[in-house]
Specification:
The chain has about 150 residues and is mainly beta. Helix content is about 10%, strand content about 40%. The protein contains 2 helices and 12 strands. Strands 4, 6, 8, 9 and 10 form a 5-stranded antiparallel beta sheet that branches. The longest helix is centred in the N-terminal third of the chain and has 11 residues, at about 1-10.
Length: about 150
């Protein structure tokens, strides 16, 4: 139950963090060191080769044992940030500091991955990819994905 309460508190605080998510820059003493989104076996006419409905491995590097929550922000609108595109969206970093999940974007356009690092109580730090990734229309072929603009 604690996990559900913590996730609910995080999501309830999201609207108050709109401005913070918009800039999403690491703070001093930050423990999230990188966010990587692999392209997997996507291909097609889209330059970024990521498509709606297709799966992409995401790795967040942080301190071992840290809990992070991932959000998918559409464009520059921090109010669009949602956790439903990640399976799972709340992660605990393993002994090497890697927290892994799968991202399945559901809308075309520019996306930014935002990471909330859960601290003591209901506090958290906000991190994010500075550059948006463009997502095109995906045709999921199982292990591969055809991406159209």
């Amino acid at each position: 139950m604690r996990k559900s309460n913590r996730a609910a508190a995080t999501m309830a605080s999201l609207s108050a963090l709109a401005a913070a998510i918009a800039v999403a820059a690491p703070h001093a003493g930050a423990t999230v060191t990188s966010i990587r989104v692999d392209k997997g076996q996507s291909f097609g006419s889209s330059a970024d080769a990521r498509g709606t409905g297709c799966s992409y491995p995401v790795t967040v590097n942080t301190d071992p044992g840290k809990t992070v929550v991932l959000l998918d922000q559409i464009g520059d609108d921090p109010q669009s940030a949602d956790y439903k595109q990640f399976q799972p969206y709340e992660l605990v970093a393993d002994a090497s500091g890697a927290a892994r999940t799968t991202w399945i974007p559901d809308r075309k356009g520019p996306h930014k991955i935002v990471v909330l690092e859960l601290l003591e109580g209901d506090d958290f730090e906000v991190y994010g990819l500075r550059n948006a990734m463009n997502v095109g229309t995906g045709i999921n072929l199982g292990p591969a994905c055809v991406v159209l603009p």
